[in-house]
């Protein structure tokens, strides 16, 4: 589905009244750029064409979304280049310095579907007197917008948008949305349009203004909303099919990925882990936590201690089983995001991945549990070997007095190597559980969207034709876990 191209340049009234006069007639009289002969049409675009197209793209960036540019971008032929240049000159002729009359051109140019002697129409059908519309636009003191809506000709024929009447009905059905986008009261909105056919695309040229000269303005979000409105109506059947295919693809992807992921998770939970650096980091974290009186949760820890936790998570992630599982998880996430956005989400280390925040607190819990077990063993050992009274008195007298707000600093005892090794294996086991939670059978619970990303995806869905209120129930979205 190529979708809908929508642009809406404008001219100001008053100082640009001469251009407004040209604007009104231009739509009907200008001859199109002469196309190349068929014998040359399939040859590569000339350097002159390529240079001119580069300048057009720089001046009018949104022309990249035109159907003609899609054809040119797919095949840099002389014919595709000429058609793209011709359409850009048509859409932006008055901005390129042309002096022909725009409205007249829209109504009479080659390719226009005429309703009698010209092709200009509005909500009531054919405009009875073309010159009256020309004069009305030419003498308007406010802004005049000249939107262009275009789709591939194959889509127009397939979906029934290959006639002026079908487009007139479409525009009339969206007139409230158009008025809202241009910040014009519906009762003040005036518009004219003409339908043009080309070999590979169809276009509707509009002229929009308000009967109140000071009323109306158009923003980029409003342009997106209008494009959404037209896409939603024109491609409504296609979009339904896409959603069905998307759901089926997700289900198939999930089943295949879960099978592989389960195998990796089982290996992760059953395996051993030999990593001297990880042992040192766990020992260092235990020392930091032993003298920390606050809540032993990642968000409450001092920055230096957080860095140790992150380093432990990164070391866990370096294990080939974890790395393979994490890579697969990212591939799965990219597949899902590809339905909504052309840009793939950034790949970050596992310790910085929002969906895997539970790993950091899991690391802390395991180290705390190791410390508690060590303390219990130490207490049991002390009970079997009581301290002599005189040694106890010396120990108490030499102890530093504790301040009211600072707990007494405990003597640090490095955990035994076997305890650290056990802790490492438990971390790996729990890492497997966390991966399983992130690809559970109830759906992509791991694909948890932060507010910014959710907004970006919703904007992309709107561009594909959703209404603001026809998305999935936010209550069914996966929520962030901390």
Descriptive account of the structure:
The chain is α+β, with helices and mostly antiparallel strands and 482 residues long. It folds into two domains: 5-30 and 93-234, no CATH class; 245-381 and 411-476, no CATH class. It is 55% helix and 7% strand. It starts with a strand and ends in an 18-residue tail after the last helix.
Strand coverage percent: 5-15%
Would you tell me the overall average pLDDT? 70
Unreliable stretches (pLDDT < 50, length at least 5) are 27-39, 96-100, 390-395, 397-407, 440-449, 470-482
Count structural domains. 2
- The number of helical segments is 19
Strand/helix succession: EEHHHHHHEEHEEHHHEEHHHHHHHHH
Terminal CA distance reads 39 Å
Inertia-based shape: elongated
Question: Strand tally, please?
Answer: 8
Kindly report the spatial arrangement of strands forming the biggest sheet.
1-6-8-7
Return Rg in Å: 34 Å
Instruction: Characterize the biggest β-sheet.
Output: 4 strands, antiparallel
Helical content class = 40-55%
Based on secondary structure, the structural category is alpha+beta
């Amino acid at each position: 589905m190529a979708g809908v191209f929508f642009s809406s340049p404008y001219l100001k009234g008053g100082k640009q009244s001469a251009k407004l006069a040209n604007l009104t007639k231009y739509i009907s009289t200008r001859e199109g750029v002469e196309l190349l002969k068929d014998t040359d049409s399939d040859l590569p675009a000339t350097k002159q064409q390529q240079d001119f197209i580069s300048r057009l793209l720089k001046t009018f960036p949104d022309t990249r979304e035109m159907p003609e540019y899609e054809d040119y971008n797919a095949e840099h032929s002389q014919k595709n280049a000429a058609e793209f240049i011709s359409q850009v000159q048509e859409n932006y002729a008055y901005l390129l310095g042309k002096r022909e009359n725009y409205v007249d051109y829209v109504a009479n140019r080659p390719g226009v579907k005429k309703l009698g002697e010209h092709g200009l129409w509005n909500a009531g059908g054919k405009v009875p007197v073309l010159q009256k519309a020309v004069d009305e636009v030419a003498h308007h003191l406010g802004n005049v917008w000249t939107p262009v809506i275009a789709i591939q000709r194959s889509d127009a024929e397939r979906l029934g948008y290959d006639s002026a009447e079908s487009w007139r009905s479409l525009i009339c059905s969206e007139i409230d949305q158009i008025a809202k986008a241009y910040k014009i009261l519906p009762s003040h909105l005036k518009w004219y349009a003409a339908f043009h056919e080309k070999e590979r695309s169809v276009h509707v040229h509009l002229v929009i203004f308000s009967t109140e000269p000071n009323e109306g303005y158009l923003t980029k979000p409003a342009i997106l909303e209008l494009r959404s409105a037209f896409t939603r109506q024109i491609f409504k059947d296609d979009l339904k099919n896409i959603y069905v295919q998307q759901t089926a693809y997700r289900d198939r992807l999930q089943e295949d990925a879960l099978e592989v992921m389960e195998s990796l998770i089982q290996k992760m939970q059953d395996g051993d882990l030999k990593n001297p650096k990880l042992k040192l980091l766990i020992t260092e974290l235990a020392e930091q936590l032993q003298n920390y009186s606050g809540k032993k949760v990642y968000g409450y820890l001092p920055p230096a201690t957080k860095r140790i936790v992150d380093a432990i998570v990164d070391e866990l992630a370096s294990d080939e089983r974890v790395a393979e599982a994490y890579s697969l998880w990212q591939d799965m996430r990219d597949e899902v995001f590809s339905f909504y956005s052309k840009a793939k989400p950034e790949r970050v280390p596992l310790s910085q991945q929002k969906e895997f925040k539970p790993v950091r607190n899991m690391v802390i819990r395991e180290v705390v549990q190791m410390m508690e077990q060590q303390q219990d063993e130490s207490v049991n050992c002390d009970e079997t070997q009581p301290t002599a009274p005189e040694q106890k008195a010396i120990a108490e007298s030499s102890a530093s007095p504790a301040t009211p707000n600072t707990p007494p600093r405990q003597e640090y005892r490095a955990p035994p190597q076997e305890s650290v090794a056990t802790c490492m294996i438990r971390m790996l086991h729990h890492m497997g559980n966390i991966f399983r939670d992130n690809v559970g059978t109830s759906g992509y619970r791991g694909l948890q969207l932060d507010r910014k990303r959710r907004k970006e995806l919703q904007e992309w869905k709107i561009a594909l034709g959703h209404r603001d209120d026809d998305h999935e129930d936010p209550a069914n979205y996966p929520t962030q876990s901390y």
